[in-house]
Specification:
Low-confidence stretches: 146-150
Structural class: alpha/beta
Strand order of the largest sheet: 2-1-3-4-5
Number of helices: 10
Number of domains: 2
CATH class of the largest domain: Alpha Beta
Strand content: 5-15%
Helix content: 40-55%
Largest sheet: 5 strands, parallel
CATH architecture of the largest domain: 3-Layer(aba) Sandwich
Distance between the termini: 42 Å
Shape: globular
Mean pLDDT: 84
Length: 227
């Protein structure tokens, strides 16, 4: 199955460079481009894309607002947003994830890693597993914030096992790592993760991680989760 990608960046040269790279992969196809945030929202609706490679700083509407509008559109429920930017401050990453982005990368990313990142978010996963990313998330979510609209905040909706697994996912563990920690199969871990996401209304694992921090299941600076 080919992953249909929308390139959203205000620099034509960068879009052309990314197009060459992405179109060289047998399972990825660039089907649309946008030079502004508003155009990205429009193209996402028109082109039936799977993944939007989204810059943050663009004219007319920035990438964060464009992300928010795309993820809020029920007709675009299957579209994943991958932020690709030179701006990697805590505040911008926080805003992007709360807007519904599935992950973010710096524009200096290795080409092979970018291709794999697109495959990862297209599969409904996130780019929140690396230790450095987890530490960054911990810093920005340490500050009080209003939970993302649409996410449930009542832990009572989750079973005890789902709470435990949500907390572990929030620390950046993959399904396989969670399975090893709890002595269960990766398939069982994945099932619990999916059920937790469904109950809180999370589009993907990135929002599950945000939920884990905002509800206090994961405490920044502490290895592990709240007992």
């Amino acid at each position: 199955m080919t992953i249909r990608v929308l390139l959203a960046d205000d620099q034509a040269l960068l879009r052309a460079t990314f197009r060459l790279l992405l179109d060289s992969a047998p399972d990825i196809e660039v089907v649309a481009e946008a030079s502004t945030g508003q155009e990205a929202v429009t193209r996402a609706r028109e082109a039936l894309v799977d993944v939007v490679l989204m810059d943050i700083r663009m004219p007319d509407m920035d990438g964060i607002e464009a992300t928010r509008r795309i993820t809020a559109d029920e007709a675009l429920a299957g579209v994943r947003i991958l932020i690709l930017t030179t701006f990697e401050t805590d505040e911008l990453v926080a805003a992007a994830l709360r807007a519904g982005a599935s992950g973010y990368l710096g524009k200096g990313v290795d080409p092979a890693d970018l291709l794999q990142a697109i495959r990862t978010v297209a599969a409904g996963e996130s780019l929140l597993s690396p230790a450095a990313t987890t530490a960054l998330i911990g810093r920005f979510l340490a500050q009080p914030a209003t939970p993302k609209e649409g996410l449930a905040v009542d832990l009572g909706d989750l079973t005890a096992r789902e709470v435990e697994i949500t907390a572990l996912a929030g620390t950046g563990l993959s399904n396989t790592e969670i399975a090893e920690r709890l002595f269960i199969s990766p398939a069982t871990a994945k099932t619990h993760v999916n059920r937790a996401m469904m109950k809180i209304g999370a589009r993907d694992r990135a929002q599950l991680v945000v939920f884990a921090y905002e509800t206090g299941l994961v405490v920044p600076g502490i290895d592990g989760h709240r007992p």
